[in-house]
Predict the 3D structure of the following.
Amino acid sequence: MGYVPALCFLNLGLLISSTACLYLGSIMINIYLLPYLDLITTHFATVPYLILAIGALLLIVSICGIVAAAIKSRVALIVYAIVLGVVFALELASIFTSMELRNELEQRRLFHTRNNEVYEEMQYYWEDEDIKFKWDTLQRDFQCCGAYNLMTGFQDWSRPGSLNNRQESRRLPDSCCLEESEGCGNHESLFSDQLAYEKINLHGCFAIMKNRLHRDISPVLLTYIACAVVLALLTILTMVLAAAYVAAITRKNNQEKDGMGMYQNPGGNHAGTNRYEDTTISRPYADTLDSGIMNGSLRSVRSNRSNYNQIPESPIIKGDNHRASLYIEPSNEAGTVI
């Protein structure tokens, strides 16, 4: 199989893998809202964004790789190989971060330690629109209210020192209500109501997500790690093959430029002529050559051929012993006879 079919086949595999990475990354971000848990550990945001970046880069580079291989562009193949090297580094990073995140999920210790940064962020819910959107999304999608506590998670919104607690009356976000409506959580009595479970969600978001992430995300991460190892090997193989193709194109261009391996007629394009006829040699070397060149021009060989016949012939082998060493007259080569 040649370079072009092999590269097209490997890029087709990378293209399919890119769609799988994009799909997995979008699920982790939009369905399980892992980036919203970055205060628990940064791996919750790093892993899905790495997978998404790998999928986007592979989608672009695989298409460009097929085109570059088809047009046999040396520059495009070099850029393609460099980008594949970057993708390979991202794949290694995603493998290691996914392994760390999975180990943390398996140990179930992520949500046991109360992170003060979470409570500090909740204090700004009523003033920061980004924080408000984040917590509303979490509480709506996971049907929860508050952070850590299982049965009393909604009480986190009344912690001492919060901005909500400094107001005239305590209240809950409207996203905590079972039937959400504007102002449904603006009742201080909800914090002490015995029948609050009929009106609001009681469980903290992290208490619910802890079991769901261990059940759903941990097996997905294990599958991704195994597939990412295979994908990394496929990426490095494609990169090496692209580099080899660049070297092959370079060798071919050099051969065409230097004329290596191509037969040329001695007379060039003029049949029956000698390409050395118009060659001139400057003095003082013309009269000292052993080839019989005289007067600094090879063209004088024909005109002086009659003079060569007048030069006495001297044999190379002297004496009766044929095993003697050869003696060559350096100044009279044209007249020697073997």
About this structure: The radius of gyration is 42 Å.
